[in-house]
Amino acid sequence: SRHHRNAIISKHVDQPAISLESVTSNLDSIEWREVEVVGRFTNDNQILLRNKYFEGKYGFELLTLFFSKSAGTFWVDRGWIAPGATATSQPMLPVTSTEKISIVGRLRLDRSLPRGSFFAVPSGDGKLIEKWNAQSQSNLRTKDFYIDLISSSLKEMSPKAPVQLPELTDGPHMAYALQWLFFGGLVIYGRILLRRGR
Question: In terms of pTM, does the model score above 0.85?
Answer without folding.
Answer: no
